[in-house]
Request: fold
Amino acid sequence: MTIVAVSLKMYFERARTLRYCEEVARIAATIPASADVQMAVYTDFLTIPAAAQRLAGSPVLLGAQDLAPEDRGALTGEVSGADLVDLGVRTVEVGHYERRTIFGEDEQMVAVKTRAALRNGMVPMLCVGEPERTDPARAAEACLRQVCSAVGQEGTQAPVWIGYEPYWAIGAPQPAPVSYVQEVCQALRAEIAGLAPAASIVYGGSAGPGLLTELSPAVDGVFLGRFAHDSAALGQVVEEALALQA
Reply:
């Protein structure tokens, strides 16, 4: 399976988000039934109910950008994973760089949120990455520690999307070097095979059109941000994914 996922973060106003979801649904409609390409779009909380309507009947997975560590309780301002599922959410970001650095989420919080996602039947987009550029072996070790912490020693048989996003490449003019990403992802895949056998590895961090082709087959897809907020660019990435399966 090739994953083409995009996060809208908090860039768009509500109307623009909904138009984008309609555009995503149209792109998904062009994917042949025989192709193993999975699209996902992660919207803000307030737009989720309306976004679910726009994506209804399409194969696109609706994603949330965060979730509460518990399903119920005295957690003012939080959003329950159980309620997200009830609204049509099927995948959720956990441990994004911004959650870790701006909002101070530590490994323990990332772990309980990962388990909350799995408990509710959602696919976690578990974001991992090294804070500073180093050699690929050390970067892979840092990412492996984050994955192990999130899924626990017992691991999981459920699908998990591991979003490799080196912190130093997020928001940069260019993604991390292709050879660097390939080495990190290949090493990480080898190490997590027994821990999370159904895991897929996708690359984020200033990812855009053309990168999936360069990184394949070291990654299973891409996790796109601002470079795919133009639906035409997203369509190019989907075309790449289809060409790789031809």
